[in-house]
TrEMBL record:
Residues 6-306 form the Inosine/uridine-preferring nucleoside hydrolase domain. One of its GO terms (cellular component) is cytosol. It comes from the Eukaryota. Coiled coil: none annotated. The lineage of its organism: Eukaryota, Viridiplantae, Chlorophyta, core chlorophytes, Trebouxiophyceae. This is Uridine nucleosidase 2. Pfam families: IU_nuc_hydro. It comes from Micractinium conductrix. GO terms for molecular function: purine nucleosidase activity.
Amino acid sequence: MAPIKLIIDTDPGVDDSMAILAAFNSPEVEIVGLTSIYGNVPTSMATRNAITLCALAGRVDVPVVEGSHKSLRGAAKERIADFVHGSDGFGNTNPQLAEGEPAPGSAAEFIVQQASKHPGEVVVLALAALTNVALALHLDPTLPEKLNRVVVLGGAFQVNGNVNPAAEANIFGDPDAANVVFSKLPNCWVVGLDVTHQCLMTTEQINGMAGRGAHGTFLRDITQFYLDYHRGVYGMEAVYMHDATALAAVVRPDLFEWHAGAVLVVADGPAKGRTIRDEGKKRWVGANEWQGLPAVKVALGVRGSEVVEWVLDRMTR
């Protein structure tokens, strides 16, 4: 089969770096571009970090296109996760950053252009707030017919969030954009904390990456700060592989248990960012806001150890 044409919408980020370098080592995908967005770091830093990761992978031919600096409402990121990923996004290792420039245009324009150029072939792996994807849908309302699918890292459906008990960080970053995506994309697959919290890379596995493949030592080094965060907050000798789990869902969806249903996101108030799925277990009497929305696929089960082994293999080739 031909490789999946993949756009990675990203905010690197330690776990984004895991996913991106693993993707470059995966023959099942052809990375046609990276688009940047705020989240773990501000958008401008996300752009620079994405360019640096492409250079590290020896793929300076892959375009990096800068995305939105603000949410659909025009709000700046409320909280940058430097306490999770370090002030540089690379676990405060301060690596030499590549000097290349982003490709012209906006992230939303790039997504539309690639989907139009390769109808039915492009998968968007959305690893941060969904602002860029929502803006692309505004630019081209026929985009759902052109994209193969969008795989979203986000949401918490049967578990607590990680920003607060209600919300997962990426959805919290722009809940309005998430509602646009979930309401307009029937070909949407959602990988949230329900499954990423079952995909843990242990301290032993992290340190075991050193010297393996082209990027094992780099990934081991940047993950130490991320590991310290997990020790302090979760009290565990392991890290959650959020972004790399979403990459695994692109290539190995068979490792996940998918449940279809309409999804709405709470846009305001103390539960801002909460994702609520219609489980489809009854016929509702009277109208509600979930009716008429597409049934997106939500991952609620995962073969976690197999995902971790797959990701470790791809990161250290």
